Structures are given as structure tokens and as C-alpha cells.
Amino acid sequence: MLSTSPLGPRRRSAAILAAAILTVGAAGCGSSDSPSTAPTGPSASTSANPDAGVLGIRDPWVKAADKGMTAAFGTLVNDGDSDVTVTGATSSLSPMELHEMTMKDGKMVMQAKQGGIVIKARSTHALEPGGDHLMLMNLTRPVQAGDELTFSLTFADGKTQQFSAVAKPFTGAQESYAPGHGQPMPGMSATPGTSTSPAS
Predict the structure, then answer these.
(1) DSSP single-letter state for residue 46
(2) φ and ψ at 20, to 5 degrees?
(3) Element (H, E) at 25
(4) Taking a C-beta distance cutoff of 8 angstroms, is the pair 116, 156 a contact?
């Protein structure tokens, strides 16, 4: 039966408008990479239920690689009132380390991130090429575009949380996660215990 109230159509219009605004707003929450450098392939969305996990993980993805090393990226979302520290990551596909890119002696170097990755309360922390990332150190098989990998994060309080990420081809920052990545490259330097990469 149709509503005879004059407010019925207005409420329906307002609901449609609100849904459209939410859809546009959600679309604007994606990657800020330009189209020429953004990874392509299947879309990956938040894979962690905020009610069940310590963090939300937005747009998780892994750089496709045939062998050697690669890295996992995404945005860690802390909706809680306390800071959260990621102290480790694991995968059945490879040993893993938490890595960062930093300037040392005027050169960009990749190294293990001491003290873990801290996500401040009510904030986000990007894992991205040229920045903090989850490093897969020695792949036991190729990671092809479209593959879905499962990771487990460990936190400072001993809790763990799993998430999945889809592999995508990516050449935007021209990283080299190949064996021998610890050797100096043009414009790079290596020190004991550090790794280098020509990431931007």
C-alpha cells in the first residue's frame, strides 16, 4: 500500500541521497596513488572484522614476484583508544620481517624496523612501497597476480590477527626485492643488518 503521508517521498529521497553520499565517500577512501603507479588487478578490501581483530586492514595487497623477496602493503586502521604495536608477521609462504625505508648517510636504505610498527590510537598507518612494509624474505613458490595470501600479525600484547591480501603486479616505485638486495646499488648503500632497495 502506498503511503499517503507527504513526508514519505521526502524520507525516501533523503535515504537515497544519504546512500549516494556514503558510496562516493567510501570510493574516496582508496589509494592515493596516481593511475600510472597504482597496482592493478583484483580489488582487495578490508579483510579483518573490526569486532574480531585488533586492527582493521584496508586495501591489503602483495607485490607479485617469481622468486626471492617481495612485500605486503595496505593501511592499518586503529579505531581503539590505545596505541597498537605490530611486533611481527608470519606467512606459510616465507619467513617475514617488519621493514622500513630510511635515509642513512644521505642514501635510502631498507632495514628491519626496530620496536615494531606503532599505529596510534584513532589513526591509520600506511604500509606502502618506499615506506614501512611487511617483507617476505625468501619465497617458497612464485606469487602470481590474483593469488590470495594469508598473513598473521603479532602484537606487543601477544595477541595475533590474520588477514588475507591479493597479489598484484606493481612497478611504480621500481623496488628490487631480488636475492642480493643487500648489495649496494647505484645511489644506495648497505650496512651490516640492512637491506637496500631503490624504492622511492
Answers:
(1) -
(2) -65, -40
(3) helix 7-27
(4) yes
